[in-house]
Amino acid sequence: MDQKHAHRKDEHIFIAEKQYTAKSNNGLDQIRILPNNLPELSFDEIDYSTSLAGKKMEVPFFINAMSGGSPTTTKLNKKFALAASETGIAMATGSQSIAIKFPEISPSFQIVREQNPTGFVIGNLGAGNNLHNAKKAVSMLSADALEIHLNAIQEIIMPEGDRDFYWQEEISEIINQLQVPVIIKEVGFGISPNTLKILKKINAKYIDLSGHGGTNFAKIENQRLHGEDFSCLDDLGLNIAECLIASQSYHDDFSFTASGGIRTPLDIIKCLCLGADNVGISGLFLHTLLKDDVSGLIKLIEEFKHQVKSIMTILGCKNIAELRDVPLIFSNELLSFKKQITNF
């Protein structure tokens, strides 16, 4: 195993947990939901099934990309997979690029499928990988879908990161030729409308907007630096509330995942109201797993499932489609953003 790369994976997890805060800056606190005082609905009528990468999901949130590539993260992947299997939610792994480069690390990711043989498992590769590597990543996990993450900001800060970002051609080939659906995702800086224009042209269908406000890879890589200071990039990007507002005109073109600092069931509801089809959660689930182990994570997921349905009940929404019609009040800051973003 390549010790330098494995150590980096452990550093990412350690620093992400160190930087975790109970309250995130996801922008969703600037959105208020008007109450429905006469819901005329029973909890038992709620159907919050949705789709993820084109497949029906019974639960509208999942364990998003985090770990793999070292002995420590192998153990975490095993625990995440056990929780996903027990609760019936989907799970994405962390980047498999390290296992493509060093095949002996593959078991760090394969353990996810071993522990969750029938669940929906999403593989993960960085942009810059070719179709051959994408097929390897899918085969490694028997993955149901593959995330391709766009992380130019993270890479440019990393001393060992990429410096060449000619990505579109290979991403297009993967989208159009891979045997499983491809989700294009950011890593916490948000996907802009200009990027969506390009992704539409290369036939992308599934987008994880991954907004600013949760795990911050600019801050993580800055903490790993021992020389140049890139802290000026710590607050770069769009939060998930801004991403969802900015993507409104593309709802007929893509299926959106909302992620980036999701902390509560109400956060999930707000994302669904704003047009997301599903919600990915990373930092909160990692924090819970490290603090309360698998049993604590399973308990939290089950609580979230119950509370999302409960909130839908009091809003009078029997399914996710009806959430789209819930009246929302935006802060002046978000209203200003919404007005300005229409110019892009």
TrEMBL record:
Phylogenetic classification of the source organism: Bacteria, Bacillati, Bacillota, Bacilli, Lactobacillales
HAMAP family found in the cross-reference section: Idi_2
GO molecular function: FMN binding; isopentenyl-diphosphate delta-isomerase activity; magnesium ion binding; NADPH binding; oxidoreductase activity
Annotated residues for binding of substrate: R8, K9, Q154
Superkingdom field: Bacteria
Domain FMN-dependent dehydrogenase as annotated: residue spans: 150-324
EC number: 5.3.3.2
Residues bound to FMN: S95, N124, K185, S210, T215, G261, I262, R263, S282, G283
Function: Involved in the biosynthesis of isoprenoids. Catalyzes the 1,3-allylic rearrangement of the homoallylic substrate isopentenyl (IPP) to its allylic isomer, dimethylallyl diphosphate (DMAPP).
Keyword Cell inner membrane carried by entry: no
Cofactor(s) this protein cannot do without: Mg(2+); NADPH; FMN
A Pfam family of this chain: FMN_dh
Organism annotation: Liquorilactobacillus cacaonum DSM 21116
Catalytic activity from the UniProt record: isopentenyl diphosphate = dimethylallyl diphosphate
Subunit composition and interactions: Homooctamer. Dimer of tetramers.
Subcellular location(s) of the protein: Cytoplasm
InterPro entries with a match to the protein in the record: Aldolase_TIM (IPR013785), FMN-dep_DH (IPR000262), IPdP_isomerase (IPR011179)
GO cellular component: cytoplasm
Entry protein name: Isopentenyl-diphosphate delta-isomerase
Top enzyme class: isomerase
GO biological process, one term: isoprenoid biosynthetic process
Binding site for Mg(2+): E155
Recorded family membership: Belongs to the IPP isomerase type 2 family.
Keywords: Cytoplasm, Flavoprotein, FMN, Isomerase, Isoprene biosynthesis, Magnesium, Metal-binding, NADP
